[in-house]
């Protein structure tokens, strides 16, 4: 029955699409109608909703007059295919009284990172546009999906110590077996890599002086990494020569870098990449305190980009005005704390960077996963936790997530955490349902109005 309802809804959408082709409309209106041919059911970022069947959705639209809303720009399409709709119509997402139980039927133009789209009949538009049921024209849906860029943003990477031993024992492919499918389909993959390649590097169990073997960097290639952040504390542990040699390795493998460099000027140079729809995404990264002397503080010194409020404000302004960035992400390697809560300096700096023009901020320092919040509608991810590192002695260090971020028309429209967990085998696992729930309880701050 559910499958038949889904097929019926799809056919009705197709009929409406065919009718629409005979009605000539001005360019902008026609474009809006095309994008409205993909309907998306969204909830607030912190809600527990994950999926609805077509039958459940139709019932919500017809009978739930309290918790179900429809964005005005898709009203015509919807009323033409589902009669008897009683859900409330709103002109803007800010008109929705968001709560854990509220749903909004919308389109791509009205998504933002504080909303999460839900599966319909088990299908996700971003993963499976060809089989997603709420589309009126498969070719239009596929074309729109092709203009959306997927970037995976990850936490702390240090291919050393226990991670090195895991590779030596089981091979380089072993480390990422479980998470690999999430990275094969990404357009961009980011890691914050804290360790440089050093000749004659050995796996040492208890050292705080880190190095990586060049062969072990194959892990980055396996994950299709093409953006490396260099704000970390340990990239200069073996001195200047390994740092510069590792920078050359990145260049040789067509991997872009930011947040560090061979000179202070290079370290403070934003990375700007062009997304699939020709909009521009900019990265800038900083290190708050440089506890290991890792920052490029002098003309002759390579290393991380030291945080300075005046410098940060100036580079963010440059990114918007001169470099024409549509969306700006700023990272900071904060001073570390084993706590789900950010410390006061984290909150103060994140607020400041967002006020100065960043559209999103995150902490790249966190070995322990930290809270997620929104500041004036902009996301702040205080710490994603360990991605490829060996700490398992505390539960908070075993917990982590990476973000799957979708960009469209110069905006971040989805920022989905994929919850992960470290077992004693020193490789990252996708969290079980209970493990994911335990992480949510610690890092989701509560309600937010998109």
What shape does the CA trace take?
globular
CATH classification, class level of the largest domain: Alpha Beta
- In CATH, the homologous superfamily of the largest domain goes by the name Metallo-dependent phosphatases
Residues in β-strands, percent: 15-25%
Mean pLDDT: 90
Short characterization:
30% of the residues lie in helices and 24% in strands.
Keywords:
single chain; 450 residues; alpha/beta; D-Maltodextrin-Binding Protein, domain 2; Purple Acid Phosphatase, chain A, domain 2; 2 domains; eight-stranded mixed beta sheet; six-stranded mixed beta sheet; 14 helices; 24% strand; globular; disordered N terminus
Describe this entry's structure for a reader:
With 450 residues, the chain is an alpha/beta fold. The chain folds into two domains: 2-144, 3-Layer(aba) Sandwich (D-Maltodextrin-Binding Protein, domain 2), CATH 3.40.190; 149-443, Purple Acid Phosphatase, chain A, domain 2, CATH 3.60.21. Helix content is 30%, strand content 24%. The protein has 14 helices and 23 strands. It has helices at 2-21, 27-36, 54-63, 75-81, 138-146, 161-170, 180-184, 218-222, 240-252, 264-267, 309-321, 344-355, 395-398, 433-443; strands at residues 40-44, 51-52, 68-71, 88-90, 103-106, 115-117, 119-120, 149-157, 188-193, 227-229, 256-258, 260-261, 271-274, 280-287, 303-304, 327-333, 360-363, 372-375, 378-381, 386-388, 399-408, 411-422, 428-430. Strands 8, 9, 10, 11, 20, 21, 22 and 23 form an eight-stranded mixed sheet that branches. It has a six-stranded mixed sheet with strand order 13-14-16-17-19-18, with helices on one face. It is globular and about 70 Å long. It starts with a helix and ends in a 7-residue tail after the last helix.
């Amino acid at each position: 029955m559910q499958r038949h309802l889904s097929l019926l809804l799809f056919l009705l959408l197709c009929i409406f699409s065919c009718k629409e082709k005979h009605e000539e409309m001005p360019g902008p209106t026609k474009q809006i109608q095309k994008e409205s041919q993909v309907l998306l059911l969204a909830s607030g970022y912190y809600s527990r909703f994950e999926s609805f069947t077509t039958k459940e959705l139709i019932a919500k639209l017809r009978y739930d007059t309290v918790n179900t809303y429809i964005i005005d720009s898709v009203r015509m399409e919807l009323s033409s295919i589902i009669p008897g709709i009683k859900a409330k119509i709103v002109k803007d997402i800010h008109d929705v009284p968001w709560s854990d139980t509220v749903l909004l039927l919308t389109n791509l133009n009205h998504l933002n990172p504080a909303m999460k789209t839900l599966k319909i009949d088990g299908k996700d538009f971003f993963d499976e546009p060809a089989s997603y049921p709420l589309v009126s024209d498969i070719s239009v849906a596929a074309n729109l999906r092709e203009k959306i860029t997927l970037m995976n943003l990850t936490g702390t990477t240090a291919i050393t110590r226990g991670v090195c031993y895991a590779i030596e024992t089981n091979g380089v492919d072993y480390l990422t077996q479980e998470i690999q499918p999430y990275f094969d389909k990404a357009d961009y993959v980011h890691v914050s890599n804290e360790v440089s390649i050093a000749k004659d590097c050995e796996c040492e169990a208890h050292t705080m002086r880190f190095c990586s073997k060049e062969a072990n960097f194959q892990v980055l290639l396996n994950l299709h990494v093409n953006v490396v952040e260099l704000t970390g504390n340990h990239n200069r542990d073996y001195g200047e020569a390994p740092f510069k040699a590792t920078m050359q390795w990145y260049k040789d493998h067509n991997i872009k870098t930011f947040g560090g460099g061979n000179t202070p000027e290079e370290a403070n140079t934003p990375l700007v990449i062009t997304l699939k729809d020709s909009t521009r995404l900019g990265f800038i990264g900083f290190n708050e305190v440089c506890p290991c002397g890792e920052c490029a503080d002098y003309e002759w010194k390579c290393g991380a980009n030291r945080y300075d409020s005046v410098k940060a404000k100036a580079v963010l302004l440059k990114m918007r005005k001169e470099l024409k960035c549509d969306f700006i992400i700023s990272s900071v390697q904060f001073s570390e704390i084993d706590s789900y809560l950010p410390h006061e300096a984290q909150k103060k700096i994140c607020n400041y960077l967002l006020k100065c023009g960043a559209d999103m901020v995150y902490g790249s320092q966190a070995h322990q996963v930290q809270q997620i919040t929104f500041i004036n509608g902009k996301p702040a991810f205080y710490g994603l936790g360990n991605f490829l590192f060996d700490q398992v002695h505390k539960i908070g260090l075993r917990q982590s997530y990476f973000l799957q971020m979708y960009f469209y028309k110069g905006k971040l429209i989805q920022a989905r955490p994929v919850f992960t967990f470290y077992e004693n085998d020193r490789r990252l696992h996708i969290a079980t349902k209970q493990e994911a729930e335990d992480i949510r309880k610690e890092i989701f701050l509560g309600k937010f109005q998109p």
